[in-house]
Amino acid sequence: MGWAEEAKGLLKGSDYLGVNLFEWGIIFALALLLWSGFSFLRRRFGKKISRLAMRTTVHWDDIAGRMIEKTSKIFLFILSLYISGSIMRADDQALRLFYKFLVVAIFFQAALWGNEILAYGLNRYLTKRYGHLDEKVDNLATYSAINITAKFVLWSVLFLLLLDNLGVNITALVTGLGIGGIAIALAVQNILGDIFASLTIVLDGPFEVGDFIVVEDKSGTVEAIGLKTSRIRALSGEQLIFPNKKLIDGYIQNFKRMNERRVVFGFKVEYETSAEKLKMIPEMAAEIVKTKAKVRLDRSHFAKLGDSALEFEVVYTMLDADYTLYMDTQQAINLELYSAFKKAKINFYFPTPSVVVQGDSGVPNILAHNKVQGANFGADGESEMGKGRIIDRNRDGVSETATY
Question: Selecting from 3.90.1150.10, 3.10.20.740, 3.40.50.720, 3.30.70.100, what CATH number does the domain 261-344 have?
């Protein structure tokens, strides 16, 4: 037993930071015991909460499960070491050292938890917007930019708080970072404007990858939303590249989100059409529209007494937004309307120049299609009807063109 007593006395006689080696051994042994207990509880509670999260629709258990899984073993050991030193009533020098390690570990662990909360929140937001997280969402460059930016801000704030808690004066550092940030922002304000516009597009969602949009006089399908630009494939095949800021500042028509399509079309008939037939036309058009699939008739009216024709207007709603289906439906309506008018001997209006032959009696004779009927002209162009005027009259007015 002499050597044991001698070794114990040697350990007690050697100290570091006010704690002898024997006490250091006890502190570390107790710390390992506490660390084993914390690790066991971490695994046990992590599994229980994960199973609970799978059976519930609330979200707090999902976040709790993620935070337990991201709890670092190094953080648990440093926490155990600080608790062990406090239990053993270690010297103030050792406790101060343990405290500094614990502060660093707490901020590091807080950053890990913050990363997990940010990722969960962003994934949940995009899942609600897109319906599910598929490759289209996961590969968005803007999604990565949001994630990286949020983490950078989180780690920067926590780093500054850590320095402040360790006794470092961060006032000058924060001031310098602020001035430097302003200078950089002024230098790259156009780029930053497009980047923030990209974040706005993803978060606000005016359009998504795969949507067909119209921007001013350009249109196409969105292929990619980048940090600075968005790429749109035009109908003619070429790729259009828009700065994100221009897309946010302008007006955008998004046809992908169209649920129904309101259609207004009109046609004209001649003034010579009888009143009985005019009464029939709105009902004829309405009946034709009603027979089409996925169509809801809104109205059919004799709309206007035009300057040169009688104008009708029909309004209906396509219950499917597919453009090809709309064109097929409109084509079928036009064909049936044309056939029905032919059968009822109703003439569509089309601009036709007319010639008015006015003789000595002063009574005009209106001749259509540029044909002068009832007047015989000789080879030299003189009329055998006697003197008069040939007037070229179109639907909008009368102008004298020749005298005979």
Answer: 3.30.70.100
Angle at 154 between CA 151 and CA 160, to 5 degrees: 135
Helix crossing, 60-69 with 92-130: angle to 10°? 130
Task: Give the C-alpha separation, 120 to 272, whole Å.
Answer: 72
- Cα distance between residue 131 and residue 140, in whole Å: 15
* DSSP one-letter string for 179-190: HHHHHHHHHTHH
Tell me the CA distances in angstroms from 67 to 61, 120, 143, one per residue in order: 10, 11, 22
Contacts of 341 (CB under 8 A, 6+ apart): 269, 347, 348
Per the CB < 8 A criterion, the answer to whether 198 and 188 are in contact is no
Q: For residue 40, which amino acid is it?
A: F
Distance CA 128, CA 116 (A): 18
Q: How far apart are the first and last CA of the chain?
A: 150
Average pLDDT of the residues in 150-171: 72
Can you list the alpha helix ranges (DSSP code H) found in 131-219?
A: 135-138, 141-165, 171-187, 189-204
Residue with tokens 């070229």: 392
The whole-angstrom separation of Cα 359 and Cα 350 is: 28
- What φ, ψ does residue 171 adopt, rounded to 5°? -60, -50
pLDDT at 397 > cutoff 60: no
Contact residues for 11 (Cβ-Cβ < 8 A; gap 6+)? 20, 21, 22, 25
Cβ contacts of residue 154 below 8 Å, gap of 6+? Answer: 111, 114, 115, 118
**Each residue of 193-216: pLDDT tens digit?**
677 777 777 777 788 888 888 888
260: amino acid identity, one letter: E
Every domain of the chain and the residues it spans: 2-139, 261-344, 354-403
Q: Which residue has the higher pLDDT, 279 or 140?
A: 279
